Amino acid sequence: MRSLATRFLTLALFVSGTALASMTASAAPLVPIVSFLQHWDHHWYVWLPGDPVYEAVEILAAKPGPDTPPLLWVFFTERAPPKHQINYYNDAQVAAARAAQGAAAQFADIKFSVTGSDGEPRGVAAEFVDLQNRKVTIGVEFDRGTTLGTLGAGLTDQIGHSSERLLLLFFREKGARTQNPHVTIGGTDAAKLPPGQAYPLPFAAAYSSNILVGGFPFVGLDVSFDGGAEKPGRGVRFAPTATPDAYEAAPPNIGRVTLVTVSDGALARYQQRDRTGAHVIDIEFDPPLPPTSDLASETVSAFKISLDDFRDLLAGSIEVCRDGGAILIDWRFDKPAWARSRVLRTTGLIDGGAISRIDLRALKKRSVNALRINAIVDPSLICNGGQPWP
Prior knowledge:
Layout: E1 14-15, E2 34-47, E3 54-62, E4 71-78, E5 85-89, H1 92-100, E6 104-107, E7 111-115, E8 123-129, E9 135-140, E10 154-155, E11 166-178, E12 182-185, E13 188-189, E14 205-217, E15 220-224, E16 235-237, E17 239-240, E18 246-249, E19 257-261, E20 267-273, E21 280-289, E22 299-307, E23 310-323, E24 326-335, E25 343-351, E26 354-363, H2 365-377
Parallel strand pairs: 5-6, 15-16
Antiparallel strand pairs: 1-2, 2-3, 2-14, 3-4, 4-5, 7-8, 8-9, 9-12, 10-11, 11-14, 12-13, 15-26, 17-18, 18-19, 19-20, 20-21, 21-22, 22-23, 23-24, 24-25, 25-26
C-alpha cells in the first residue's frame, strides 16, 4: 500500500490561503485544506507471503525529464498495524528530506531496468541493499499478449495504511496482473507462496500506469499574507494571478496551489498541482465558501474532488463555522464508500482579519456522531463550543 510523498518526494505539504497584495484581509478567501500531489509513470506491487515482517513491496518510477535517469521509490509495508513503511530512494536529497520529516527512509543505489513497450504491461528488475545490509532483488514479468485494463484500477481504498498521518488519494488509470514474481531478501524468495497458503488477493503481482498519488496530510502550516518572500519550512504565501479572482502560492520546486473565487471573494475551487504543473487535484465547492469576513454563522456546502480528467472521484459535504479567533471546517465524505468513515477537520487561526495558520486533523467518527446527536438539542455544539473534539 502507499505512503505519503510528493511528486519527487520532497513532500509537497501546502495550504490554500489568502492573497494580499492588492486585496484586503477582509476579502480574503477561505483556507480549506492542506494537500500534496505527485505523478508517477509506473508502479509495481508484489505480495510477500513468505516474509514474516513485510506483507508487500512496491516500486514507483517517474522520468523527471528527457535526459535524466528515472526517480525510483521502493518501499516495504509491514504486516502489523499501523502498517509502517520502509522507504528507499535512488536520490540522496529526496531520501534525506523524507528522513528529516520522520519517515523510515534512506538512499539506495538501485539497479533498475524495465521490459516491454508503451501501452502494454511493463516488466521490472531491481536490485539494492536494504537497511539490514541484505541484498534485495525484485523481478516481475508478463506473458506475451497480456494487455492493460481497468480491473483493479481507479481510486484505491486506503485500508488503514498510514491513516494516522493522512487521507491518501492513490489513483491508477490502467493495470495488469501476473503470477510468479520473485523478491529475494538475503537469498530467500519472499514472494514464493508457502505450502497451504493463498495470496490475500487473486494475484501475486501487478503493474499500473499513469499513477497519481496525493492527499491531505495531517500537519500544521503557517500562512503569510504580507507579499514578502516564501516562508521557510512549512509555510506559504499567496498572491493574485493574472487571471481575475484567482490567487496562487508557488513555493520553489514543489508545485502550485490555486484559489479560484467568485466576485464576492467566495471560494469556488481549490487546485493543487504537482511539481511539473501537468497534473492537478481539483476541489469544487457548491455553493462557494464565503470569505473569512462573511462567516457570521455556519455554512454548509457540497464538494467534489477530481484528479486530472478523472472527475468526481470523491464527494461529500463541508461545514464551516466561525469560533472566536478560529475557523473550523469539517469534511465528510459520501463517496467512495471506504472514505465514509473518515471525518477531517481544518482549523484556521485568524490574525488581523486573515488566516495566519492552518491545521488539518482526523476526527474520531464516534465523537462526530455523538456530537451530532447532542446538536439536535443544542445546535451550537456543531462547532463544539470552541473545544477540540477527542
